[in-house]
Design brief:
Shape: elongated
Distance between the termini: 51 Å
Strand order of the largest sheet: 1-2-4-3
Number of helices: 2
Largest sheet: 4 strands, antiparallel
Order of helices and strands: EEHEEH
Strand content: 15-25%
Mean pLDDT: 94
């Protein structure tokens, strides 16, 4: 059975009483990142389930979760990026 894109969810679940969070995901980039963390930090991050349709569940410290807005470059940074792009394009 193939899942549609709308069915390929990512669910982050935690509560106030416990120190860990659970992440269920079908997102390939997030799965790769979490699987790598399982290898590099096995005492803190572990895969707890696989649903057989591509979804994996992980457990990790909830203090590792972070929500942040995208970075907004300063005018000086934009100028440097523009010069680098011009150099790369040979103009």
């Amino acid at each position: 059975m193939k899942l549609t894109s709308i069915e390929k969810e990512t669910i982050i679940n935690f509560n106030e009483a416990e120190r860990t969070a659970s992440i269920y995901t079908h997102n390939e980039a997030l799965k790769r990142q979490l699987l790598e963390l399982c290898q590099t930090h096995p005492e803190q991050v572990r895969q707890t389930a696989a649903n057989g349709w591509g979804g994996l569940t992980f457990e990790l410290p909830k203090k590792w979760l972070k929500v942040s807005p995208p970075r907004k470059p300063t005018p000086a940074q934009l100028e440097v990026l523009a010069r680098m792009t011009q150099k790369r394009l040979g103009r």
